[in-house]
Amino acid sequence: MEYQYPCSHHWTTEEIIAVIHFFQAVEKAYETGIPRDEFMAQYRRFKQIVPGKAEEKKVTKEFEEVSGYSAYQVFQKAKQAEDNKTIIIKHT
Prior knowledge:
The chain is mainly alpha-helical and 92 residues long. The chain has helices spanning 13-31, 36-49, 53-67, 71-80, and strands at 34-35, 86-87. It comes from Siminovitchia thermophila. Pfam families: UPF0223.
């Protein structure tokens, strides 16, 4: 992909890498599918770094604007899915 992932100058290098892994998990849900448990593990780590709802919405909206991929849609599908079911989002 030809875009930059959103990040904060307040995050450590390790946190930036974890956030990028989360966004890559979102991409994977759209491109090839991702096991629910794998996505949720990435989401839980993301929430450790971005615990507030307002900041989460800001960062995921920035990501959606540059990528076209909705972290919210993937999360909603993951919440509804059975354990370790593969999550695939059809891109419209």
